[in-house]
Every structure is written in C-alpha cells, then in structure tokens.
Amino acid sequence: MKNKILMFWFIVLIVIVSTILIFVKPTKLGLDLVGGSRLVLEAETTETIAKITPEVMSRLQIAIEQRVNKLGVAETVVQQIGDKRLLVEIPNVTDLKEAKAFIGETAQLEFKKEGKLPDGTPVWISTGLTGRDLTKSTLSTDASGQWVVALEFNADGAKKFADLTKELVGKPMAIFFDGDLISAPNVNEAIYGGHAQISGGNSGFAYDEAERMVNLLNAGALPVPAKIVEENTVGPTLGADSVAKSQKAGAIGLSLVMVFMILYYRAPGVIADIALVIYSLILFALFKTIPVTLTLAGIAGFILSVGMAVDANILIFERTKEELRAGRNLFTAINSGFDRAFTSIFDSNMTTIITCTILYLLGTSVVKGFALTLALGVMVSMFSAITVTKNFMHLVFGTGELKHPALFGLRKDEIGQSYEAVETKREKARFGILD
Amino acid sequence: MINTGRKNLLQIVKFRWLWMACSALLLIPGIIAMIYSSVTYSNHAPMKVGIDYTGGTILQYGLEQKLENSDITKTRNSLQSVGIENPYIQILNVNTEQQNNTESNISSIISIRTKFIDKDSNDQDKITEQLQKDYNNPELISVSSVGPTMGKELFKNSLIALTLAILGIIAYLSFRFRFDYALAAILGLVHDVLFVCGVFSILGLVYNVQIDGLFVTAILTVIGFSVHDTIVVFDRIRENLRYYSKKMSFGEIVDASVNQTLARSINTSITTLITLLALYFFGGVTTRDFVLCMILGILIGTYSSIFFCSMLVDFWNDKKTAVQAA
C-alpha cells in the first residue's frame, strides 16, 4: 500500500508539472494552422555548374536563408532535404507572390559587352564581371531625381570594372539582371574607384523595383537557379478556422468518449476518464516541450490517439470483469486483469509504433507530424493505463471482496461462475492469489 | 469450458463459409471498381489520384456567398475563356452552424485544379482576376502545388512506406507469435486495405474523390489499427491454448477467444469511431476524406479481426490436422 501512495503522489507531481508546462510554453502551430507558405525548391544545373554537389547546396542554402531573413518574418525555416532540394517555410507572410519571386530569383548581375556571332549577328557577351564582385549595393537617386542602384565593387571587382570601362570607352556596356537587360549605357570614360550606378534605362526604375534589386544584390546571387517544385500555402483565415474547428471536434470527441466509458464501465469508467484527462495533459505538455509542431494532420493524430488511449483501459477492465465473474476478490482481479491484458496492449501498440516510425522516416513533413503525435500518444497511453489507471483502481477499490457488482456494471448472479484457468505458481504469486 | 461471460456464442468456426462469403461480398464491388478504373483512367491508376501524385496546382478561394452546382460549369467556362486549360472545379460548402464560433465569414470554398503553374506562368493571376469578375470578393485561402517530377517521387515513397510497414509488421508478429498467425494478421490487413481502397475507388468514380499524400497516411494508420485488433484476439487464443488445449478442440478455443474479446473489440472501435466522427462532422473540411478513410478502416478492421483472421487461423489448423491424420 505504501508504494501505491508514493505512486499516487508521483502521478500528482507529473500532472502539476505538465499543467505548468502547458501554461508556460507556447504551442507551436504548423503553417496550415497559422497560415503561411511551405515551398520546396530544387536546384537546377547550369552550363558552368553541371553537377549539384553538397558544396553548391550549402551555398544555395546560405543564399536562400539570407533572402528569407530579409522578408522580416520570425520563425522561418530553410532546410536541406535530399541531395538537391531545400524546404523553405515562411509563416504569416502577407504578400506571398512577392515573397516567392524574391526567393526564387537567381539575382545574377552581369556586365556584358558587344560582340558578334560568327555569322555576324550582334550579341552581348560576358565580361567576367558579375554580382559576385560587389561588396554592397545601396538605393540612391541620380541628379535628375530618378531612382538608381548604387554599386560598390570589391578590390578585384574595382580593377575589373576599371579595365572594362577603359576598353569600352565610346561603346555601350550592358547590365543584365537574371538574364534581363536592365540598361545599356554608353561608356564615356574609364571609371576608377570601384563605384558605379545602374539606372533603369529609358523608363527609369520604380522605387519598388530598385529596392528589390538592392535587396537581392545584397543578399547575394544564388550559385545555381532554384525552381519551386512544391508549394503549400494556407491563408490566415483558413488556418484560424481549422484551429477553431479542430478544438471543437476534439472537445466533443473527448467528452463523448468519457460519457461512453462511464455508461459502460461505471466506477472504473470514471477512473479511466480521469486517466484520460491526465493522458491529455501529459501529451500536450510533451508536445509543447519537445516541441512538436502541431499541424491539422497532427491534431487529427492526437484526437485519434484519445480514442485509442482508452483501448488499454478497455482491455484491462474487460479482463478485470472476467476475473470478478470468476469470483476473485478485487485486489486479485485488478492485478491479474492488468497483467493478462498487458501482453495484448504491448504487442498491439508495438505495431502502431512500427508504422509510425516508417511514416516518420519516409513521410513528408505533414505526414511526419501525424506520425509523431500518434506515436507519442500511444506511448503516453501505455503509461497512463498501466500506472495511472492501475494505481487509482487499487486506491479506490482496495483489497476487499466485491460487494457492489453494479459498480463494475456486473450483475450479482454473474459472480462466481466457473472459471477454469489454472494459474501456475509463478502467476499466482504475481497476481497475489492466495490458496 | 471457458467462461466467456455471454450466453450466445458468436460462432466463427461453424459458419466459416458464411464469413468468407461476407468478406467476398464486401471486397468484390471495390475490386471491380479498381479494375474498371485502371482500365479507363488515362494514368491506369486504380483510384482517382490527386496532385500529390500527378503534379498540378490547386487554388482555393473562400467566398461569402453560397454556391450552386451550376457555378462549377459557369466557372469552368469562364476560366477556359481566359486560356486556362482544363480546369477541374470543386465546391465545398461550409456548414454555417459551424461558422458561429469562428471569425471567418466564408460560406463556401471554390477549389480549382489546373496543371502545374510554373514560376514564369501568370495563370494564377488570370484565375484570380477572373474570379474577382464572377464573384464578390473571393479570398485566396490556399495554394498547393506539386511539380510533375515531385509527384512521381512522392508516389514512389508512398509505395516504399507501405511495403516497409507490412514487412515490419510481419517481422514483429513472426517474432512474437507463430508465423501462421502473422500471415493471418497480414491477410487481414490486406483484406482491410483492399476494402478501403475499393470504397475510395468507387467514391472516385461516383463523386470524384481523389487520393493524396494523407490517404496513404490514413491507410498506414488503418494497417496499424487492423493488426492491433487482430493481435488482441490472437493473444487470447495463445493464452487459452496454454490452459485448455487438452480439454477443448482448437476450433472451440478460437470461438471462445473471439467471444471473450468481443466486448473489447467493439468498445475500442466505438471510442475510436466517436473521436473520428467528431472530427468528420465538426473538424475542418480539408481533412474530411482523411478521416473518412480511417472510419472505414476501423469498421472493416473490427470486422476482420473478429470474423476473418480468426477464421483463417482455424482453417489452416484444420488443414494441418487433416494432413497429419492422413
């Protein structure tokens, strides 16, 4: 009895800790609940970079991270998945189209000069001077008040720029941004000192256009182009709506299960309900502590696990009822009920955990969330059924004979029917059966 | 005799052929639908597959007004007139009662599926503009887009996941039980998965229900549950064999074990179904098919663990004893 009481206080402690954690820690909601965008980018090879090596990927990741950070939203994620893909998550973004364009743009600034194909057609040819030779760029205005992008070259770039302008005096020098010709001014004289300006050509830059280019140049060009191969975007209204609905569904589901347990199992049903509440508290606290990002599928997994969590209780109660029907006293019936139900509970939960592990390892992030919540749910449910329910059953019912069969939903005439299970000595000792 | 706590035993062994026929009756319509679909669909899939596997883009707009079914044709024509090829339109009506406690005033959602919209395409703008002309204030609430190569990969991964899950379960069961029990449990889960896939194949043909990445998740959960249920019954058979194998025939033990676990099998399914039904009726529209898949899986999983798997074990045992006797 003494360790039963110790156990009881241990459970109380866990409940208190869980409750505190629930209040202190924030809930991490997935993008489908807060609204936001999840993009999968795939690196593409170019003429110069024919193979996507890990080194190219890490450069791409850094460049994308810098851009995502410039969007000014908190809790963004940029993560490599597989050999050539990046997962980008941007919560609470207001103008997604803009953000997407910003992230996906290669931002390759190139200076080109005039040249000719063998057949005489004029073309722009590369000079070797690119955005990589810049130290920074700023937004500025020129003498006429037009927006311009001011460039500052590094030492190497400054030299290249000086040589290039010297070579091109009297000729046009073209500035390309991601393959688009921005402007092609005539070079009047060689420019030393490593400073230059890009104006928007005849039409000039709009403020937004110039600002975006400055941001992209400062964030650095992508080493290789990246295209969006998967996108999931959820608007904030739909997200909020989903949260509200899931909460409602969860509350209704949980209460109906609790009512069912009391109606069918009576007194033990009440104990199972308390265990269920404790289960939910522990699980929710775990979600917040780990932390598990709750997605819509994750919440479905959580609610499903509530239904499955009572399964262990049901198995145990059915077994206990059988033992009581056989005329055993309460203490023995509860003990052997638990003990005999345990292998079923363990084996059956193991298969759920096996499938969850596979889902977690192979699934996409949505599936991962579901698998993790379900697996955690199953594990916590084993704890809550085996320790919480068992402990409360012993504390409440004690060791005496069953005086009121109705407490267990049994009829008086059912008690003491023949039961031929012959326990081995070891089992008797384990269940506490006295001959 | 084993005390099963009930007067009228559910007779699994005696009515073996009835339960076999019953399973066949449950599975055959779905199998026919899957064969029909594989023959008629252009991608030869047994079920209607969504963009997760084929690649494509789905744009969803929330509208304040209720939409009629005639709006589908109207919107399709109007989108085609601005050059959107073959848009597939669906309308989801949001239950207004559910709306009371949420802040949004969206009463229906129009979902438009097109081919994959690339970075350089302005199809999304075209669709938004066209809807703004046709309806009051459409609000873009979600975009899902999967590139064509990505779709193939996701499909491959799903198949790998399914195969690994089944192998993992066979391995675990063979380790914990005898191999023939494991095989019966696996046949049970194949039975359940075939049923659920069959129903979704029929739903695809009749209501255009499409399967996506979540469907595979739901199927894997169904697998877990199906085996879970079967194990409880087998565990009882294993236990009863230890105590009664000398006094009772194998068939009697199977019957008694099923009956002893009957209340548990049904009650667990009820509690799980309660939570799933709550999700189905009160939860979000987006996970509805996912939940439906699990509801079907749990119903059939309960049936198969009671009637199908235990019948199989007994059937094999009979065959084995017949061989030994001869």
Key words describing this protein structure:
heterodimer, A: 435 residues, alpha+beta, Multidrug efflux transporter AcrB transmembrane fold, Gyrase A, domain 2, four-stranded antiparallel β-sheet, 11 helices, B: 326 residues, Alpha-Beta Plaits, elongated
Outline the fold blueprint.
The complex is a heterodimer of chains A (435) and B (326).
Chain A lengths: L1 H23 L6 H4 L1 E8 L10 H17 L6 E5 L3 E7 L4 H9 L4 E8 L5 E9 L3 E8 L5 E7 L1 H13 L5 E5 L2 E4 L11 E5 L7 H13 L6 E9 L1 H54 L6 H30 L4 H33 L2 H33 L27 H7 L4
Antiparallel strand pairs in A: 1-3, 1-11, 2-3, 4-5, 4-8, 6-7, 7-10, 8-9
Helix pairs in contact in A: 1-7, 1-10, 7-8, 7-10, 8-9, 8-10, 9-10
Chain B lengths: L15 H25 L10 H4 L1 E8 L6 H12 L6 E6 L2 H4 L8 E7 L8 H12 L4 E8 L1 H29 L2 H29 L5 H32 L5 H33 L5 H38 L1
Antiparallel strand pairs in B: 1-3, 1-4, 2-3
Q: Largest chain-chain contact?
A: A-B, 83 and 82 residues
Q: Helicity of chain A, in percent?
A: 40-55%
Individual helix count of chain A: 11
Number of domains of chain B: 2
Name the strands of the widest sheet of chain B in spatial order: 2-3-1-4
- In percent, how much strand structure appears in the residues of chain B? 5-15%
Average pLDDT across residues of chain B?
Answer: 85
CATH superfamily of the largest domain in chain A: Multidrug efflux transporter AcrB transmembrane domain
End-to-end span of chain B in angstroms? Answer: 29 Å
Low-confidence stretches of chain B: none
Give the terminus-to-terminus CA distance of chain A. 21 Å
What is the CATH-assigned architecture of the largest domain in chain B? Up-down Bundle
Give an account of the 3D structure:
The complex is a heterodimer of chains A (435) and B (326). By secondary structure, chain A is of the alpha+beta class. Chain A has two domains: 2-32 and 235-431, Multidrug efflux transporter AcrB transmembrane domain (Multidrug efflux transporter AcrB transmembrane fold), CATH 1.20.1640; 36-233, 2-Layer Sandwich (Gyrase A, domain 2), CATH 3.30.1360. Chain A has helices spanning 2-24, 31-34, 54-70, 96-104, 155-167, 207-219, 236-289, 296-325, 330-362, 365-397, 425-431, and strands spanning 36-43, 77-81, 85-91, 109-116, 122-130, 134-141, 147-153, 173-177, 180-183, 195-199, 226-234. In chain A, strands 2-3-1-11 form a four-stranded antiparallel sheet. In chain A, strand 8 and strand 9 (180-183) form a beta hairpin. In chain A, helix 1 runs antiparallel to helix 7, helix 8 runs antiparallel to helix 9 (330-362) and helix 8 runs parallel beside helix 10 (365-397). Chain A is rod-shaped and about 110 Å long. The two termini of chain A are 21 Å apart. The longest helix of chain B has 38 residues, at 288-325. Chain B is built from ten helices and four strands, in the order ααβαβαβαβααααα. Chain B folds into two domains: 16-48 and 150-325, Multidrug efflux transporter AcrB transmembrane domain (Multidrug efflux transporter AcrB transmembrane fold, Up-down Bundle); 56-146, Alpha-Beta Plaits (2-Layer Sandwich). Chain B is an alpha+beta fold. In chain B, helix 6 (148-176) packs antiparallel against helix 7 (179-207) and helix 6 (148-176) packs parallel to helix 8 (213-244). Chain B has a four-stranded antiparallel sheet with strand order 2-3-1-4. Chains A and B meet through strand 1, helix 4, strand 11, helix 7 and helix 8 of A and strand 1, strand 4, helix 6, helix 8 and helix 9 of B.
